[in-house]
Amino acid sequence: MVVGDFAIETETLVVGAGPGGYVAAIRAAQLGQKVTIVEKGNLGGVCLNVGCIPSKALISAGHRYEIATHSQDMGIFAENVKVDFSKVQEWKAGVVKKLTSGVEGLLKGNKVEIVRGEAYFVDENTVRVMTENSAQTYKFKNAIIATGSRPIELPTFKFSKRVLDSTGALNLPEIPKSMVVIGGGYIGTELGTAYANFGTKITILEGADEILSGFEKQMSAVVRRRLKKKGVDVFTNALAKGVEEREDGVTVTFEVNGETKTIDAEYVLVTVGRRPNTEEMGLEQIGIKMTERGLIEIDKQCRTSVPNIYAIGDVVAGPPLAHKASYEGKIAAEAIAGHPSEIDYLAIPAVVFSDPECASVGYFEKQAIEEGIDVITAKFPFGANGRALALNEADGFLKLVLTKDDGVIIGAQIVGPNASDMIAELGLAIEAGMTAEDIAMTIHAHPTLGEITMEAAEVALGSPIHIINK
């Protein structure tokens, strides 16, 4: 058969093989569908290749270096600690390769056909998949769009050798002496922290009145204090105006409190959000409704305005989280199979791998009050936990948001070590409709950070053991 002569038929076509797309493809295959997945880049998408995984690897390496050089409080004095950054990058690449090759194995093991190329929708049942040298038509019964997002580029900060997006920052050949980070959200804070741990002089410029604006100010304040200890300068309510590039660095101009300032650095990292990849796919011509921001409108089953085409992940509304995309991918695959599955975002966690980590699930206190829910809150500090003290990580707290009348847990926020892992128990508690009593009566191993969850539940019940009940 000559490539492009005849349409190849499939039941479910998935466009994009990131954490949303490949999960959707596998789940659809498990449900008995003949599945084809189309990917123009590397399997695993942004998350595995240039996002979640490599950034956490870099953060982990930076944290190891910081511990090696800053453990004097514990009586540990290290001399001549060196970083071979090329080796760090090699190790990081190895982690990525292991996971991406694993994704390929999982897809093949579930009999999902992998097609390389760029998809263009011809009509509601047809796409053309194009490469540099060929084009092939595919006919499908249902399709799932999971094409993800890309960093927003500011007109006054065009990406270049010295003006970096998150991908560029992850792949620097050596540790920079200095870096300006524009945007104090989760990406800017994470990468800024990682390089600060390696010794880079970091300056963060944030337009809002606090970094990590998606979290409560009490939480971001803990992170900001730790950043200050690392020598990081944070300017809030700051407007980045422009950049002058040189062969060996940049000069960034910004405005804060009505005053114009400049700062020199080797690099500037721009992390001001992400834009959905929904252009040049033919979506408009087949009648798929989108918002002004280019997000695809969906219903509770991830179905678009074209009934047999679904959309998940960063191309639909909501935070650009890998686990949100994976969750939506399962919902879409099950909806195609005729299951009554629907999306429910209440128990979806948000995590920032800052120092210390931040995590949240369910309602924030303010959000619950605004929605007319009568709530109480309970808080327990990491500083009163034996395991946290033994780790020399006593900053932070865990906060529960509960209904006032029956003590049902509807929200939780954590800032502290291992918050990213601890939040899972509270996500389960919300999903299962558990109460403070359910958590307090669950025996938690001692000494562990998990005890903090139990202690906060006891605070909610008015019977805390390890802090004074006020």
Q: Count the beta strands.
A: 22
Instruction: Return the CATH class of the largest domain.
Output: Alpha Beta
Query: What summary fits the major beta sheet?
Result: 7 strands, mixed
Structural Rg: 24 Å
**Molecular shape:** globular
Q: Tell me the name of the CATH homologous superfamily of the largest domain.
A: FAD/NAD(P)-binding domain
- Number of H- or I-type helical stretches: 13
Predict the CATH topology of the largest domain.
FAD/NAD(P)-binding domain
**Approximately how much beta-strand content do the residues carry?**
25-35%
Overall average residue pLDDT: 97
CATH architecture of the largest domain: 3-Layer(bba) Sandwich
Low-confidence stretches: none
Output the structural class: alpha/beta
Summarize the helices and strands and which ones pair or pack.
Blueprint: E1 8-15, H1 21-30, E2 35-39, H2 45-50, H3 52-69, H4 85-109, E3 113-116, E4 118-123, E5 126-130, E6 135-145, E7 149-151, E8 163-164, H5 166-170, E9 178-182, H6 186-197, E10 201-205, H7 217-229, E11 233-235, E12 238-246, E13 249-256, E14 259-265, E15 267-270, E16 274-276, E17 309-311, H8 322-336, E18 350-352, E19 357-362, H9 365-370, E20 375-381, H10 386-390, E21 397-403, E22 409-416, H11 419-431, H12 436-440, H13 451-461
Parallel strand pairs: 1-2, 1-6, 2-3, 6-17, 8-15, 9-10, 9-15, 10-11
Antiparallel strand pairs: 4-5, 5-6, 7-16, 12-13, 13-14, 18-19, 19-22, 20-21, 21-22
Helix pairs in contact: 1-8, 3-4, 3-6
